[in-house]
Design a protein that fits this description.
single chain; mainly alpha; 1 helix; 0% strand
Length: 115
């Protein structure tokens, strides 16, 4: 072969090598763009889920506060009702005469008159 042909072959080989390198670089760029797009979607989904969880957390905190308030109201009602029961029991004792603990034998009856 002559030197012109050898130089031409070397240049064509260099061009093929460069074209392969360009093609590999383009594939790498496309892969990186795809991974970047997927990462962006995952981030948006994750932040969307985090936002939804934050919203649910806030809602549940409000429910807890409402329930704690309700429990306090129930405790107050219990104290009030217990006081009312105590008052009613006290009033009931005052209104009723004391009952004897032993049976009372009417006067005029004694053990002598029993059969």
């Amino acid at each position: 072969m002559n030197s012109f042909q050898e130089s031409k072959n070397e240049l064509e080989a260099a061009i093929r090598y460069a074209e392969n390198a360009i093609s590999a670089a383009q594939s790498t760029i496309e892969s990186m763009e795809f991974r970047q797009e997927m990462a962006k979607k995952e981030y948006e989904e994750r932040t969307g889920r985090e936002k939804a969880l934050d919203d649910e957390n806030i809602r549940l905190q409000k429910v807890v506060i409402d329930l704690e308030t309700f429990v306090e109201e129930l405790r107050d009602d219990k104290v009030r009702l217990n006081r009312k029961v105590e008052t009613l029991e006290r009033d009931l004792k005052v209104k009723q005469p004391e009952r004897p603990t032993m049976p009372v034998i009417p006067q005029g009856l004694s053990h002598r008159h029993l059969p």
